Amino acid sequence: MRRLGVSCISAALLLVTGCFYSFAGGGLPANIHTMAISSFDNQTASPDVSKELYDQMHKELQRRLGVRDASPDKADALVHGTIMAYDADVPIGFSANPQQAVSARRRLQITVDVEIVDQSNGHVLYSNKSLRQEADYDERAEAQGRQQAIEKIVNTIVEGVQSNW
Known about the structure:
Blueprint: H1 2-21, E1 23-24, E2 28-29, E3 34-37, E4 41-42, H2 48-65, E5 68-69, E6 77-94, E7 104-118, E8 124-138, H3 142-164
Parallel strand pairs: 3-5, 3-6, 4-6
Antiparallel strand pairs: 1-2, 6-7, 7-8
Helix pairs in contact: 2-3
């Protein structure tokens, strides 16, 4: 009976240890060591959002998912998508005090479709259609609101990839 218990514990440890080595850092399959991020197609009137989203994704996805940068033709995984909507003028609050410098709060919303594909077999590692994030900002501070919404998009993608594996 003792031998059976030791065997079960050994098997469990082997299984758990194997799980740690079966994935690359951050929740990707073991064959994913490099990643390329394509510029997202921008279907909005805001030219800045595409570059800012690309820069943030390039900076954070690879660092947080434990992969190296690579060109699209050599990468193990490819991130691509489309910026579907960008609305920076959703009013959420106004000040009744005319002496106050900031008279209104605004809400910015960004909606993207994103997909991460294993290029060796075409398997979709992560997909999120109509991923929408928003951020509130003071009037005339749209750039800060956009940066906050983009950070939330990238966080959602990282968490989604990690939870898939």
